[in-house]
Amino acid sequence: MNKHLLINSLKIGNDLPLVIIGGINVIESEALAFQVAEHFVQICKKLNAPYIFKASFDKANRSSIHSFRGLGLEKGLQILAEIKTRFQVPVITDVHEVVQATAVAQVVDILQLPAFLSRQTDLVVALAKTGKPVNIKKAQFLAPQEMSHILNKFEQAGNDQLMICERGSCFGYNNLIVDMLGFGVMKQSGYPLIFDVTHALQKPGGRVDSADGRRHQVLDLAKAGVSQGIAGLFLETHPDPERAKCDGPCALRLDRLEPFLTQLMQLDQLVKSWPEVEID
Length: 280
Fold this sequence. Notes:
The structure is a single chain. The strands form four sheets. The protein has an eight-stranded parallel β-barrel, surrounded by six helices. It has a two-stranded antiparallel sheet with strand order 1-2. It has a two-stranded antiparallel ribbon with strand order 9-10. It has helices spanning 30-47, 73-87, 101-105, 121-129, 147-156, 181-187, 218-226, 257-273; strands spanning 5-7, 10-12, 19-26, 51-56, 91-94, 110-113, 134-137, 162-166, 169-170, 176-177, 193-196, 202-203, 212-213, 232-238, 252-253. The chain starts with a strand and ends in a 7-residue tail after the last helix. The protein is α/β, with parallel strands linked by helices. The chain contains eight helices and 15 strands. The chain has one domain: TIM Barrel. A hairpin with a 2-residue loop joins strand 1 and strand 2.
């Protein structure tokens, strides 16, 4: 049975129209965040695509101590609040520490549990206790069926407003793969399944001091994921990916957003128009 998650007036489910969760990897500046949010809002309105803005105020997991991490909790939340008000869209951001949970929950509509931290019980409980919906990133080292343990932790902590997010699995050194058969495994939970297509393009540590990526294959991978009948697509963009301060090699060029989403919304509509076929 498909479970539906209600975010304000936006309903999310594997059997509902594809939700776009998009924005930038990390808030580099207020101007960039507003630019990207405005572009997404315009395109998604044109395509009649439900939309949630995404950006991180801090990137705690970086290859180098000198890597850019963001504008910090206070400034980051201020910008997210302004975007939420100005564009009238829900916002999502990740939480890395237990002490951040309450403050972040007062601003954003959805909390995100980072992949590498998804088994951290104290953080799971802290996010659950906020009462806010949570997007759970599947760790790169977990099998799809192991997500049931994290879902159980949240439920036992009193929160079942959940989404599962696939973002690729470790495949040897410096590489990720996406197991499309795993989508069906995770959908058996009934919870909305989100596909983080841009992070799945990563080649972790591929540039020695930072991650490399395969931006040129983003449409190929996105079409494969959307073909599985999922609740939402998660993606990060940048006007100039070569100059992005984090994960530029994976980011979709902002000026390619409209043709990219046009194809995927059409594909989603087609896939969800097909009757379910029982195959034993």
